[in-house]
Amino acid sequence: MSFFKRRPSSEAEFDSTFRFETSWILPPSLLFSLRALLSLYAFTTIFTIFGYNATHGMSANSRHSFSFFTNLTYWGLAFYFAFSALHTGSYWFSGKPLLARWPRLLQTAHSMFYTTITIFPWIVTIVYWALLYSGFPTPFSSWTNTSQHALNSVYALFEILFPRTAPLPFLHLIVIIFILALYLGLAYITYATDHYFVYDFLDNKTNSPGKVAGYIIGILVAAIIVFLIVRYMIVLRVWVTEKKFGKTGKFTTRGSTRRADEEAGKHIALHDVNAK
To answer: Are 244 and 82 in contact (CB under 8 A)?
Structure first.
């Protein structure tokens, strides 16, 4: 597949065929709407939790929430879907996404952001249901935990299956490991400053150092495995949709009327792909 070939960065145009902003099956209008709706739901969940805590004498829980990987990942989903909706919407209306006008550094950051939101939700879901789940005492906790520990992976799955994004670069695995290492540091800084462990399995006071190390290594290995699974799910999606069935994308009719599709090795007349 030609999109696996690495081109010199000085010659390559970032996302030249608008893979981050388009879908192989959804028109830009619908992709924009769904991404915006998912972002709205995530932000609504976050601020509803904050409001509930404030009205039930648990404001400290909101302050402490920024030490939890679950919450940080959920914030990441909310913001990613907001920005991805913005990019898709700007592409739909003008034919050129806002992302294409950003500096290359921010474009690369967006690509890395995409990798994190397709990987970390699965880690959160696996760790929560395997190690932390102990029942839901109230309907409110049932809704919030389902949203943050189950629907979060639905968000990730949506971005794996429906956009035209290319397979995750192997270099991004370093980013995943680096962020996990930074979070581990945050967890122990939280203990040093606030005197509590965000997750019991990181408690080196009640658990042996070997057991804590085992959990940490286990999560690292799980992250690497999830990265590989997600990468090759995207490889499979690209092969099935584009190579097997020729679904090279739904594009906007605004702006340029033709766009070179480098991955398919041909030009696509946008009015021929039923774009809206």
So the answer is: no
Q: What is the mean pLDDT of the chain?
A: 90
| Residue 152 tokens, joined | 């979060």
Structure tokens at 79: 């913001």
Segment holding 80, helix H or strand E: helix 69-94
Distance CA 113, CA 59 (A): 29
Q: Can you tell me the distance from the alpha carbon of 239 to that of 164, in angstroms, rounded to the nearest whole number?
A: 11
Token pair 């081109």 is found at 7
Task: Give the C-alpha separation, 36 to 90, whole Å.
Answer: 13
The answer on pLDDT for 156 being more than 50 is yes
Q: What is the pLDDT of residues 167-188, one digit of tens each?
A: 999 999 999 999 999 999 999 9
255 Cβ neighbours under 8 A, 6+ residues apart: 94, 95, 96
For the whole model, what pTM was predicted?
Answer: 0.89
Strand partners, 250: 23
